[in-house]
Batch of 2 targets.
Target 1
Amino acid sequence: MKGTNLGEFEELVLLIVAGLFEQAYGLKIQEEIKSKAKRNVSISTVHATLHRLKKKGYLTSEYDNTEIGSRGGRPRLIFRVTKSGFESIQAMKELRNSLWDNIGDIAFN
Amino acid sequence: MNDKLPPKWAVNLLKKMLDPFLFNGIYGDLLERYHEIYQQNGKINASWYFIWNTLGFIRYWRLFKKRKLHFSNSISPGMIKNYLKTIFRSFLKRKAYVFLNIAGLSIGIASFILIWQYVNYEKSFDQFHEHSDRIYRLTRKDKSIGKEMANTKPDLLDDLVDAVPEMKKGTRFFIRRNASLLVEKDGTQEIFKDLDVSYADSNFLSVFTFPSALAFQNSNALAKINSIVIVESLALKLFGKSEVVGQRIGVKDPNFPLTFFNITEVIKDVPKSSHFRFDALLSLNTPLRGGQSLKDLNWNGFYSYMLADRNADPTAIQSKLDNFSGEYFKDEVNMGFGLQAMTDIHLKSDINFEAGKNNDIRTVNYLAMTAFLILLMAYFNYINFSTAKSTDRAKEIGVRKVLGAQKGELRLQFFVETAIINILSIVVAILLLFMLKQLFPSEQALFFYNNWQSIFSISGLYLVLILIAGIFLSGLYPAFVMSSFNPLKILSGSFKGLGKGIPVRNFLVSAQYTISIFLIIASLVIYNQVNYMLKQDKGIDINDVLIVNLPDIRDENYREKLGVYKNELEQMAFVTSISTASTTPGNGYNYSVQARTTQQLATETSTFYIDGVDENFLDHYKAELLSGRNFRGATEGEKSKVILNEAAVRQLGFNTNEEVIGKELLFDDSNFEVIGVIANYHHKSLKEAYDPQILAYYGTYVPHFSVRIPSNPSQQANYLAQLESSYKTVFGQPFDYFFLEQHFNTQYESDVNLLKLSGVFSFIAILIAVFGLIGMVAFTITRRLKEVAIRRVLGASAWGILMILSRKVLILNLISGVVAALLSITYLNQWLNDFAFKINLSLLHFLVPIILVLGITILIVLLQSSRVLSLSMSRFIKE
């Protein structure tokens, strides 16, 4: 199913959006990537990825209506993981788990 | 917070790139971080951050690009039908506007096409030869007086074979004008007069490309003596068919005995775009009376052409010619050779003894420039009209926009409208040209002596490209302006028309004024110069002088008849005086010589021009004898005497005319005593400075009779009748004469032509400008109708209103006048520099055109506004 596959970075962003819950907007996501994954990415890359995920239907976005002074009165665009988005990372996690189970302990001896 | 905002351009860039939905969120993110950095590291770092990250979004522009809102599909057939319908409805609604537009454009385009094909024709001269790019003409140059002469001696080419290895072939010819041909048919002889016959080398037809009119080409047509090659039209005239090889033709020529030639080849007619013309070619090897051929005459009567090797460098050839000239001219150290590319001759060569009348490249360029200017004016008109009239269309634009039309679609609509008007104008222009051709079918008429086919060649492609470019030029601006109207303003009624288009329109109107005034100034100066040349005192009197040509067909009693006719002329009471000379004023000189006084060294020789005259010449033409005496008639020793003009005296290095009297001149291997000095007179056109002239005594040599008759127009026909009847009785031939002054003035033919053309096209330029002006003034008045009405009701005078309405246009007019004057000063001074005798530019040349255009403007404003002012004003206030 082309178009619904998740890239490595996309998966990371999706997980972070899910973890931030209701606080997931561009800048915050960028900071989280930096602090959790130790990766320096530009804000444009973050937004591009968010946009792609949204096009795939894994995210929705909505403006919160609180105006914030430090943002020049601009509202934050909050991202939420959709049901299919959640299923997608869930499936990814299960796939990984089952693969890990196959490896067992032997492989590392 | 406002002072803490990032650079505006970066914000705008971001806004341009992003979908409006995303913009707020992303801009907010950037701002948040921007302010953080601002607090910690200052403004510069913050700005850098903002700019850098904004630029980062460029990578993803395709991802974030704005979503277009498509409410209508612009290319659906229904929509196109709708566009066309509205276009034609709007045409019908505004007939006057469409008419003015098409009239202006089609006149502009017609003028452009007309000049375009003329310019192309002029530039195509001599291009029809297969080797046209490597044929050169050899000329003689006298470096001491800066004169160049087109003809050379016949031995030159033979000597050049070793000196210039690049010369692949050399060919020469000698043109005999007004020759008569004699054809024997069924035992009777028929004579055809006034033909140009050339004596040409045997390789003439392999250097130049004159294709055969027959099935088989005879490449050796001129090799044998007594061979003649004739052009197809002459074959048809002489024999009524073109397959005439083997027939005999007799060549009668005043200076040669009757000789019979065999036709060896018939070629197609010489194209009009050839700088030399002939009706027949004779083999140059044919012996003359004494057994010698023309080639053996050591005389500067030949045109010498060389066909150079492929890739030969003309500058290298020229330097070899320079080396060779010392060896060839020996003591005549000032003489040298020139090399002219054949394709340059028609437009760039104006030297002595040309083979035909050439044109001037600057005349052609001036016309080409005029063509472009007129076309530009026509397009400017269109732009002006359509933007000015766009307020009429505002409602339509508003409604279309509200219903979801995009800018691009509106642009397309208006552009298509322009294209339709342009194409209609092109069609009308072509119809106009055909009508013009019907009106002036004569070959002589201004422009139509050349082939229209040139329009369909490569240059025709350029023409089409230019006209297409014109559609874009005139269509894009109005389309962009009109599609940018704000629909809210239009529909709420607060739309006041086009504010921002006014500077552009002012510029276009000024440009039109400038072009018109420039063209009028140029025409006026050309008119004055041509008039000056026609009216200026020539130093001799050629009014009321008649040149009687003597018959070509001469029998053994010819000498006797000449005496009889001269006697009869002298008997006629009305004949004031009679003279003869080897040439007439306006016809160039007999030939040129290298001369010096016996005191001068051989290296001090320089070029002089010889004319043979009789003892009556000075009195007959009323030339002024400054010093010494006239010829005494056919007495002993007069043939070794000469009279000089002042220019010749100066060239010999004498400061006074008296000094030169009695000195001996050396030329043509003989000594000549100077007996008199005459004042300089204009032997040639006033374009040329005075040449150093030598008048030699030719005594009994009579090439024509120059007859002065009284200046009495009512009796002229009577005089001519008497001259004619006597001529016919004596010679038994048709009377052949011309008036000298008319003949002299044919030298100004190209200038008079330029004058006519520049007059016609200035008029057309004014016409187009007037169309534009009428439209503009009408537009201004309608826009300010309410203002005018209020002023009028409050008591403003008609005059005051007129001032208000015309002020702006008059200011534009004056500014354009000054610009045009400045532009034309340099241009016209350059043009005038080509004339040895010329007028000076005066203030009037500039003031008259400016005032003329000003007057036309005022007239238009007056007419247009009087129409409005005569109406009841209350109506407009109520509206």
Target 2
Amino acid sequence: MGGWAIAVHGGAGVDPNLPQERQEEAKQLLTRCLNLGISSLRSSSSAIDVVELVVRELESDPLFNSGRGSALTENGTVEMEASIMDGSGRRCGAVSGITTVKNPISLARLVMEKSPHSYLAFSGAEAFAKQQGVETVDNNYFITEDNIGMLKLAKEANSIMFDYRIPLAGSESCSAVVESPIQMNGLPISVYAPETVGCVVVDSEGRCAAATSTGGLMNKMTGEGEAIIRGTLARDVAALMEYKGLNLQEAVDYVIKKRLDNGKAGLIAVSNNGEVAYGFNSVGMFRGCATEDGFMDVSIWE
Amino acid sequence: MGWAIALHGGAGDIPRSLPLERRETREAAIRHCLQIGVDALKAHRSPLDVVEVVVRELENHPHFNAGRGSVLTSNGTVEMEACIMDGNTKRCGAVSGLITVKNPISLARLVMEKTPHIYLGFDGAEAFAREQGVEMVDSTHFITPENIERLKQAKKANRVQLDYTQPIKKVDEIPVSDGDSQIGTVGCVAVDGHGNLATATSTGGFVNKMVGRIGDTPIVGAGTYANNFCAVSATGKGEAIIRGTIARDVAALMEYKGLSLKDAAKYVVEGAPSGTTGLIAVSAKGEVTMPLNTSGMYRACATEDGYTEMAIWPGETCD
């Protein structure tokens, strides 16, 4: 058995012309999240607690597209979704269509632990949130100046398609986005395009957990997230290890190469013996990882 | 090589004491639907068309838990979901939270063919249905007296009832519809003589489910999956099927471990918690299998060489 390991991401598919100071901000946030996770792991928190804690932090910071800072629908509102999974017992919870819950990932965990179901959506999920007494906020809380600007740009180009999409429940952490992020439906995008945040952790007892949260896409492209659904990407990393005997990095490389067809995506993964791996075929992915033996890396480009 | 088709009307706790007349109604419907599928395959319709046609027919039948006959949420409403997938292209479409669309499976196919997305839910899915002009009906169309009674019983027992769970028995209570009170998901898988594969699954979910609950049926890889190896439709306890990525795992075992269809399906169903899972699957080579670890599953299949079978309980067939 290896030690603990952790990886975080802020989405795949980054504008190559992203200003330097934005890149630094992103790296600082990823570093802060990693450190949060690391100190939690050192104080023997379980993997499931750590992924929830880290994703809450990513949701609460407006930088990436989840929680506060989520991309806007055509109506200028925010609709979020999240999923969490505990490797031990394969327990999982997911939520979609969330408009007032401050931390969707924590609601997903409550679905896993306090409901007989795995996946709740829209008004049913909001009703469950009220019943559970989680912190709710006005929808305006989630909306940032940057995203209002992006929506305006998109509307001017008349290229909005309202996003009704629902993600896959109960998966490991993976994220997908725009292939050439300079252009999003023909629009120049110089702020953060990526779709999703996530965290995966294996704790020192070998328990794995994953959490993913997103505000969805401001503007529907051909749907890179769809390539992830079709390719059952996260499950296939695990299936390749389980059924084909590949190691973690080989499995990650295989799914990025073979399971995405023409879709662009990235993913992070940890194994129960303390390995950590990532892969992406997009231009860049905001990511960071650390292991118990002292290794730590935060990067954006290949 | 040759065509093959299998369909199911749900897995769950189906007692062998099931009253004959209840059993016969369902068996007749299953036989009728199988014949529709066989005729369509013989007429060289694509497997994608075949699974859609067969599932539409099952949705229209009030004794199965999909479309008309869907079980009720804790609020007494229906919320239907469905998913369809084409094996060779891996194109797929799914819908959840439908309340007025007469045939959810056909809306799932429209999501696949007319949108850049895979999965639409709730208000957005209903809006898309209106835009596409599919047949819509008042939600009372879907609600049957049996399902109102089922919900009442489930509420009394304060639980969500699984597919086919035995109704609550009390001496002072007349069991409403002993043995068939819980009706399952429906599904169909088909392959033609060229190895083209397709799958479709449709459901009303669980009796007394929470409003907004999404199950395994519309989750690609959980309740429904097809690729160029096989097509799979699963039924049973949705939460267990999601966790086990049941349908994808049958395909992954063939793809990554080289197992045969039968061995892969058996491995997956035996590995799932007892009493949770049944599935039907066909392979590109025209093989068919229908394993279950629940006490029963309404199921039937046919292959081009003339083999055909219909069964409810385990051990009745080669599975």
